[in-house]
Design brief:
It is a single chain. The protein is of the alpha+beta class. The protein has a single domain, classed as Alpha-Beta Complex (Cyclic Phosphodiesterase, Chain: A), CATH 3.90.1140. About 30% of the residues lie in helices and about 45% in strands. Helix 2 crosses helix 3. Hydrolyzes RNA 2',3'-cyclic phosphodiester to an RNA 2'-phosphomonoester. This is RNA 2',3'-cyclic phosphodiesterase. InterPro entries: Cyclic_Pdiesterase, RNA_CPDase.
């Protein structure tokens, strides 16, 4: 099964993210937009994992959750990862970076103890609104038009998510969730 570790959001936050995503859609010729139910913040992408690896991932999540207290973060500005003409459009985090980084580092250390290689890419916390987006105008113009409120998110747990297709539609399904201390 294909899995990743994430911070999930409540329905109110998902509704807000969907509203900002609709603003991006209005400024787009096309794109592959994240389903409202799939909004999350990825802590670590794992990829394909078997039953024994899932057990070890859960152990790493448990060790991390027992060592980290819940904390808050705030939404930041609209951002992009350019991919030629197509872009990944996301919302960043404006506050809570230190706590998020601590959570990520503890998770990485626990995953490494469980036999997983450390992530090579820098941790850049963001919430993906869509991929392969072709904007109708320059990203800088769009990002000035779309105001992101600094809404607060309480990080109280981390989840192991399965990425699966159900009737051809991509779904991120929580298969394990652990509350932070």
């Amino acid at each position: 099964m294909r899995v990743f570790i994430a911070i999930e959001f409540d329905d109110e936050m998902k509704k807000y993210l969907a509203q900002r995503q609709a603003d991006v859609k209005k400024n787009s010729a096309r794109g592959n937009f994240t389903g409202r139910e799939n909004f999350h913040l990825t802590l670590r992408f794992i990829g394909e994992a078997n039953r024994e690896e899932i057990h070890r991932i859960k152990a790493a999540i448990n060790g991390t959750a027992e060592a980290v207290e819940s904390f808050g973060v705030k939404l930041g500005a609209l951002g992009e990862f350019p991919r030629n003409r197509k872009k990944i459009i996301w919302i960043g985090i404006s506050e809570g970076h230190r706590d998020l980084k601590e959570l990520f580092e503890k998770l990485e250390a626990n995953l490494e103890r469980e036999g997983f290689l450390r992530e090579e890419r820098e941790f850049r916390p963001h919430i993906t609104l869509g991929r392969e987006i072709i904007l109708n105008k320059d990203f800088q113009e769009v990002s000035k038009e779309i105001v992101i409120e600094g809404k607060s998110i309480r990080v109280e747990s981390i989840s192991l998510m399965e990425s699966t297709r159900i009737h051809g539609v991509l779904h991120y399904v929580p298969i394990y969730r652990k509350k932070l201390k």
